[in-house]
Design brief:
By secondary structure, this protein is mainly alpha-helical. The protein is built from seven helices and three strands. It has a three-stranded antiparallel beta sheet with strand order 1-2-3. The protein is elongated, with a radius of gyration of 19 Å.
Length: about 140
Amino acid sequence: MYRVFLERAAEKQLKQLSAKVHKRVIAAIQSLAKNPRPVGCRKLTGTDNDWRIRVGDYRVVYELMSLPDLVKAKKTQRDKDWPMIRRLVEADYFKHRERPKQHQLRFWFLELRTPELLIELAAARPAICRKLIKTTDKDPFDV
C-alpha cells in the first residue's frame, strides 16, 4: 500500500472541477495508493519519477518516490513536514523489521528519530550499529 499526498496546487485545481469529474479524479487518485502503475499509465520523459494517468479528458500527473527519496527530498523542506516523515519511516520500520534488507537497516539507523525504536534496532543489530558508528563518527572538520 502506498500513500498519496496532494500538493496545494492540485487541491486548488480539483476544487475547480465539476462534481462529477471531481469524483472520478479523486477515485483515480485514491486508487494509486493500491496500484501506483495502473493499466494505461505513462512514464513522463525527461523526469526520474513522474507518471501520468488519464481520467476522461483530464491528466493526473504524479510522482512516485521511495521512502528514502522522500526523506532526502524533505530534508530541505519545512519543519512542519517532519512529523509525517517520522511516521512514514516508523511505518516502514514496523512493516519490514522482521526480515529487513541491508539498505533498509542503514536507512533506519540514519533516519529513525524515535529513541525507543533506535534502541530496539541497535539491540537487534549490534554489528551493523557499530559499523555505522565507525563510519559516521569522523569529525567533518578533521582534515
